[in-house]
């Protein structure tokens, strides 16, 4: 029973509503929950009246934030995760990298990982703030497509909340925020909470215009099945990604020439055989690190198990794909 409670606590955590008039306190709380940033007044004679409440459900953090004063938030380093801000009142002007957007009750601002960002927040603006773990959101995308997402989803910096798909996502977000605010919320149970977690990520991805093109491309590939020999090669990689495959080995196993195998991968998969192999290995390594305790395994052992002989290159590829280091995933688990 105690173990079950511990699992639920690690999956779900909630911050009770905090009100403060101190700029440093508001900066610390919001930085701790969402992303580290600096907070300053953007007008003279301002007095803060901040209110913050938030909850984390697995890979999703959702909260309400209002400052009661004209303030500016600046994150000068690259963001680690995806953030979406939905104003319930008034507006906020934001930038992410070189892109700008104004968030209003009909248009959300979207902040992408790997770029610095900032917000000019109006005094009367209260926002629902959502954070998606980069690694988990991109794994959800691969799950929806049914294949590794070699190319990233082209997410726009603003989200039209009047579109049908966005309205459905916004309704789910509102329900989820109300639910996490209750003391005895059903989302505290990992099984129920996981459904909400996946629904919110799926809804966000489905509302992205570029996702439709990716889904159509994936459907076209499935509508015209690849040759049997390619399917055999893919199965070999999926079943034994830890083996030290070369393109020559794979071609020999399936009984065709190297050039024919490379052309088949290019036409039907979109990447060379060894690039596909690396992506599968990264996914397996990520799954094992996420399911292990820090004292039970080491990053080096997991990397070697899944065919990565160079630890530095493994760490770089892992961070490229999942947005965090392997050690971060292991500690988080």
Overall pLDDT score: 87
CATH superfamily of the largest domain: Jelly Rolls
Q: Helix and strand string, N-terminal first?
A: HEHEEEEEEEEEEHEHHHHHHHHHH
- As an assembly, this protein is single chain
Which structural class do you get from the secondary structure elements? alpha+beta
Anisotropy-based shape:
elongated
Provide the CATH architecture of the largest domain. Answer: Sandwich
Widest β-sheet, arrangement of strands: 1-3-4-11-6-9-12
Number of strands: 12
How large is the count of helical segments?
13
User: What is the CATH fold-level name of the largest domain?
Assistant: Jelly Rolls
Domain count: the total is 2
Protein name: Transcriptional regulator containing an amidase domain and an AraC-type DNA-binding HTH domain
Keywords: DNA-binding, Transcription, Transcription regulation
Domain HTH araC/xylS-type: 231-332
Organism: Mycolicibacterium rhodesiae (strain NBB3)
């Amino acid at each position: 029973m105690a173990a079950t409670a511990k699992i639920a606590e690690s999956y779900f955590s909630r911050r009770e509503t905090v009100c403060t008039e101190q700029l440093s306190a508001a900066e610390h709380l919001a930085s701790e929950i969402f992303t580290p940033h600096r907070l300053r007044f953007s007008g003279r004679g301002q007095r803060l009246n901040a209110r913050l409440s938030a909850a984390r459900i697995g890979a999703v953090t959702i909260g309400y934030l209002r400052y009661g004063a004209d303030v500016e938030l600046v994150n000068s380093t690259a963001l680690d995760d995806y953030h979406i801000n939905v104003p319930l009142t008034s507006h906020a002007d934001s930038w992410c990298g070189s892109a700008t957007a104004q968030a209003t009750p009909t248009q959300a601002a979207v902040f992408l990982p790997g770029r610095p960002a900032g917000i000019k927040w109006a005094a009367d603006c209260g926002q629902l703030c959502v954070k998606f773990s980069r690694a988990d959101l991109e794994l959800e995308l691969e799950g929806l497509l049914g294949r590794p997402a070699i190319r990233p989803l082209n997410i726009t910096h603003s989200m039209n909340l009047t579109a049908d798909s966005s309205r459905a996502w916004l309704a789910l977000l509102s329900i989820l925020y109300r639910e996490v605010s209750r003391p005895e919320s059903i989302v505290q149970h990992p099984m129920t909470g996981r459904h909400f977690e996946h629904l919110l990520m799926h809804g966000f991805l489905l509302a992205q215009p570029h996702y439709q093109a990716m889904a159509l491309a994936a459907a076209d590939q499935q509508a015209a099945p690849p040759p049997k020999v390619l399917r055999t090669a893919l199965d070999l990689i999926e079943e034994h990604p830890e083996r030290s495959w070369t393109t020559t080995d794979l071609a020999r196993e399936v009984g065709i020439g190297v050039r024919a195998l490379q052309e088949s991968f290019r036409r039907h998969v979109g990447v060379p055989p060894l690039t596909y192999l690396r992506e599968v290995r990264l996914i397996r390594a990520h799954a094992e690190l996420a399911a292990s305790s820090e004292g039970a395994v080491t990053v080096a052992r997991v990397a070697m198990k899944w065919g990565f002989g160079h630890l530095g290159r493994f760490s770089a590829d892992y961070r490229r794909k999942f947005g965090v280091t392997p050690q971060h995933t292991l500690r988080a688990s």
